[in-house]
Amino acid sequence: MKLAIVLCLCAVALAGCGSAAPESNPSPKSPPVPDTARIVCDRDGSRVLTSKVRARPDGVRFEIENRLGKDTGYSVKYSESGMGDNAPKGESRHTGGFPPGEVRIGCYPSLNADPDYAELTVLAGDSGYKPVELECPGGRAVGSAGGLYAPGAKGAKGDPVDLVRRRFSDQLDDGDVVEAAGYPESRDGRTVRAIRDGRVVAVFEYRREESGWLENGYSACEDF
Q1: Are strands 141-145 and 118-123 parallel, antiparallel or unpaired?
Q2: Can you name the CATH fold of 36-123?
Q3: What percent of the chain has pLDDT over 70?
Q4: Tens digits of per-residue pLDDT, 80-134?
């Protein structure tokens, strides 16, 4: 009788082992998002070969392959702003300061023609990007364009954040947070923002010169 019970228990154990669900195969990983976008411009228009790009601390890196057989220019449209520069024939490398999100980028096919745009998604990734859009009540803002400087003008020494604190000390409140914004390692310039009561109320632009920093305009809420 004992032998029969032992055999029965073994049979149950073996049945349980046999019915164990096999391990599921792990789902394939998505390929990593590149940190450099590739754009091709030819007679058929502009094409983005990398639909997504990961921003870096110095901005958004992209390569343009200009197959038009001549030098041209490119344009980038984002939010309510844009930028552009030259796109010489062949391959060229660029870095833009446009923010994460959906952008349109394309080359000018000819002198009088509009760019043929293609879509590109920019991911913030680990770039350290901080938004620079103003958050003004009613959208009311004022601003100043970048100054005109004589050749050889010397920029101010120091950190742009400290320059803003000194330059706008009369307008800054004790509780305002003044900090670097945009891309923290931008090569051509720096952006500084002022936050008051959790809102971005002012944005200051500086451009790099060999001797230091030159003011390149600012925008602020009316109540700043």
Answers
A1: unpaired
A2: Immunoglobulin-like (2.60.40)
A3: 86
A4: 789 999 999 999 999 999 999 999 999 999 878 889 899 999 999 999 999 999 9
- pLDDT tier, 14 (very low <50, low <70, confident <90, very high otherwise): very low
Asked if 68 and 127 count as a contact pair (C-beta separation under 8 A), the reply is no
Q: Where are the domains of the chain?
A: 36-123, 137-221
Domains 36-123 and 137-221 belong to one CATH topology: no
Residue type, 200: V
β-pair partners for 178 = 194
Q: How far apart are CA 195 and CA 27, in angstroms?
A: 43
Read off the pTM. Answer: 0.78
Architecture, CATH, for domain 137-221: Roll (3.10)
- Ordered DSSP codes for the chain: -HHHHHHHHHHHHHHHHHTPPPPPPPPPPPPPPPSEEEEEEETTEEEES-SEEE-BTTBEEEEEEE-SSS-EEEEEEETTEEEEEEE-SEEEEEEE-PPSEEEEEEE-SSTTSPP--EEEEEE-TTS--B------GGG-EEEEEPPP--TTPPPBPS-HHHHHHHHTTTT--TT-EEEEEB-TT-SSEEEEEEEETTEEEEEEEEEEETTEEEEEEEEEETT-
- Single out the residue of 66, 212, 83, 88 nearest to residue 152, CA to CA: 212
Q: CB atoms < 10 A from the CB of 121, how many?
A: 15
